[in-house]
Amino acid sequence: MSGDYRGRYGSESELIAALATLFQSGAEKIPADLIVDIGDDAAIIQTAGDLMALSSDLLVEGTHFKMEYSDLYSIGKKAAVANLADIFAMGIRPRFFLVSVALDERFLHNESSKNSILELARGIHDQASQFGVRVIGGDIARSDRLTISITALGNGSKKVTRSGAKVGDGLFITQLPGRSLLGLEQLRKGINIDGESIAHHLAPEVDFEKFFTISRSATALCDISDGLISEAGHIARASEVDINIESAALKHHPNFEKISELAKELGIDPIAAIIESGEEHFPIFTSRIDELGKLDGMKNGFKIGDVLAKAGESGRVMLDFQEEKRSGFSHF
Amino acid sequence: MSGDYRGRYGSESELIAALATLFQSGAEKIPADLIVDIGDDAAIIQTAGDLMALSSDLLVEGTHFKMEYSDLYSIGKKAAVANLADIFAMGIRPRFFLVSVALDERFLHNESSKNSILELARGIHDQASQFGVRVIGGDIARSDRLTISITALGNGSKKVTRSGAKVGDGLFITQLPGRSLLGLEQLRKGINIDGESIAHHLAPEVDFEKFFTISRSATALCDISDGLISEAGHIARASEVDINIESAALKHHPNFEKISELAKELGIDPIAAIIESGEEHFPIFTSRIDELGKLDGMKNGFKIGDVLAKAGESGRVMLDFQEEKRSGFSHF
Q1: Are B177 and B272 a contacting pair, CB within 8 Å?
Q2: Roughly how many angstroms between the first and final C-alpha of chain A, as a whole number?
Q3: CB contact under 8 A, A64 and B1
Q4: Are the beta carbons of A24 and A38 closer than 8 angstroms?
Q5: Portion 168-197 of B in contact with A at CB < 8 A
Q6: Fewer CB within 10 A of the end CB, N or C, for chain A?
Q7: B41 vs A145: CB contact, 8 Å cut-off?
Q8: Cα distance from A162 to chain B (closest Cα, Å)?
Q9: What is the spatial distance between Cα B46 and Cα B86, in angstroms, rounded to a whole number?
Q10: Which of A5, A37, A45, A52 is most worth mutating to test chain B (most B CB atoms within 10 A of its CB)?
Q11: How many CB atoms lie within 10 A of CB A11?
Q12: What residues of chain A lie within 8 A of the CB of B331, using their CB?
C-alpha cells in the first residue's frame, strides 16, 4: 500500500527488467507456444489440447532454508528442484515457472543486494532451464523474511496420480532416501563428515527423466518431498489401501551401509533417517510386481514394500506391519 | 526444514483438507477440463488448443494490507480481485487459482485461529467463484508475516496486451480512479468521512465483464493496479509511444466533483489522488477514436488523453504535455 520502497533500484521495473533479461537468456529459443512473455499483466501460452499440470510451492527463510547454511544460488536451485519434482511426479513434463519473491531490507540497499537477488534468480533459472523450463512471470514484494513462491506448469498426454495403487502392487523407490536429513543434521551441528549428503541437502541433483520411465508402469507416483513414510501415506490415503514397508528391504538396499554408518555417527537411528528424510525429490511409486521386469529391475525400481487391502477407515502406512506414526518433515 | 510446527491442527493435511472442502464447495459443478483437483503433487487441467493466460501476485501483510484496517474475509476478496484483474486485463477469462499462504503464530494455536484462515480462504473463494474461478491447488508454509501468493490462469481465444497502442489512438478509462487512495487515507487517519471509498479500498467491486466489451476495440489494455500514471506508462513503454493525459478531461468526468471534494477534505490534491490511486482494478485502455462509437460512448470508455509519437528513447507519460514523474503506488 505504501510507496516507501519505491526507487531503491530506481524502480521495481528496473529490477523486473533485470530479472526478465536473466529469465529470457540462455541457449533455448523462445518456445513456440509462449505467446506473451514476462512484462504484461499475465503471461500467455497456447495449449494444444493435452493435459496441463499446475503446482505451487512457497518457501520461507528460516522455515525452509537458512542463509547461514546455504548461498542464494543453491537456495534458488533447490526451490526449482522442488517445483520441477511436483510436475514430474505427475508423469508430466514441466514447461513454465512463475516466480514471486518477497525481499527484506538486506536486498534493498545497493548494487550488491541487487546482485544477490539475481544470484537467487540464476539458481532458479539454471536448474529450470536444465529441464527446458522457462520463467515467464511472477511478482516482487517486500517482507521481512525472504519468501519464494513458485508456480510450475507442465503439459503432457498421460498422468500418474497418487490414487491408482492396487492391492497386490509393490512399493518401489529408485534411490534410498536419508542423505538430505543427514546433510541437514551436519549443517545444524556445524560439522562436515560427509560433504556429499550436505550438498544433496542444499541442492539435490535428481534424474528427473526417471519419472517418465517409471510412469509407463507405475499405478501411483509421488516424489519424496516430505519423507518416505509421508509420501507412502499420501498414496495409501488417496488410493484407499494400506501400505507395508519392510525394514529388511531397506536394509538390503546397496546404499544402506553408507547411510547407516553416517546416521550412527550422527547419533540418528538409520531407519528413522531413511523413512523421515524429506526434500529428496526421488520417485516413490507403486506398480504391479510382474511389471517390474519391464522397468529393468533394480535400475528403475527397488521394492521396499507392498500394497494391501485397507483394514481401517482410511489408508495407513505400516513399517513391518506396525502402524507407523512418524510422518517426516512438515514445513508448516 | 523443521518439523516444529507439525501437529498444531493435528496436521497440515487436516488444514489442507478443510481448505479443499471450501474450495470445492459451491453451486458450480466440477469443470470438465479439470482432471486432477487439489490433493496431488499438482493439479491437472485439459486444454483445448486456445490461449492460456498466467499471472502471479504476492501480497504481504504490512506492505499490501493491514490487519488493523481490514478483516481477513475482505483481505481474501481483495487478493482475489487483484488476480482476476490481471487475467481480465489480457482480454482473457480467468478459470483457476493456485493459492499459497504463509501463516504466522497468530494462526497456529487453536480452533479460532483455524477459522480465521478459513475466513481468508472464504474471501478468496467467494470473490473467485463469482466469476466462475476455482482454486485448484496451492501450498501452506510458516512465516512471521501473513503472506498470500496467488497464481491465476485463464483461457480464451483473443488477447489484448499492453503493446498495441498506436499514434492517434485515444486513452480511455471506464471509471475515475481516486477512491482507493482516499479510502486508505481515511483508514490511516482513523476517520470515516466517506464509507464508500473505504469499502472500495478494502475490497473493490469491479465489473470485470466490461473488460470483454472493451477488448473488442482496445489496442492496448491494463487494469489500474499501481495507478493511472503508472499503467499509462506501462502502455507507453510497451507500445513505444508517448501518452498525454489531459487534466481538463479528468475534471470533466461526472465523478470528479465527488472525488475532488473528498480529496480536499483530506488535504490531498484531487488530480494527484486520481492519477496516483492504485488497486482500483478498473480498465485503462487505448482505442482508435472512431471505434469509440462501437463502445457505446462514455458508458464503456471516457477519453482522458491521446497516444502520440514518442519523442524520447522510450515511451513516456505526460500530464497536460508536461512529463509526469509521479508513478503511483509500488509495493516494493
Answers
A1: no
A2: 28
A3: yes
A4: yes
A5: 184
A6: N
A7: no
A8: 6
A9: 22
A10: A52
A11: 15
A12: 1-2, 5, 141-142
Per-residue H/E/C for A199-228: HHHHCCCCCCHHHHHHHCCEEEEEECCCCH
The pTM of this model reads: 0.87
CA distances from B300 to A229, B174, B278, B286, B312 (A): 57, 6, 20, 12, 32
Interchain pair A238, B87: CB under 8 A: no
The string of pLDDT tens digits covering residues B168-226 is: 999 999 999 999 999 999 999 999 999 999 999 999 999 999 999 899 889 999 999 98
Nearest to A56 among B89, B138, B161 (CB): B138
What is the C-alpha to C-alpha distance for residues A35 and A23, in angstroms, rounded to an integer?
Answer: 16
B50 part of contact set with chain A, CB < 8 Å: yes
A57 burial class (0-12, 13-18, 19+ CB within 10 angstroms)? Answer: buried
A198: number of Cβ within 10 Å: 21
Domains and CATH numbers, chain B: 12-156 (3.30.1330.10), 170-323 (3.90.650.10)
Interface contact B89-A154, CB threshold 8 A: no
Give the one of B11, B44, B55 whose C-beta lies nearest to A53's C-beta.
B44
Instruction: Tell the residue number behind the cell numbers 490414487, with chain if given.
Output: A163
Give the three cell numbers for residue A22.
536473466
**C-alpha–C-alpha distance, residues B52 and A51, integer Å:** 13
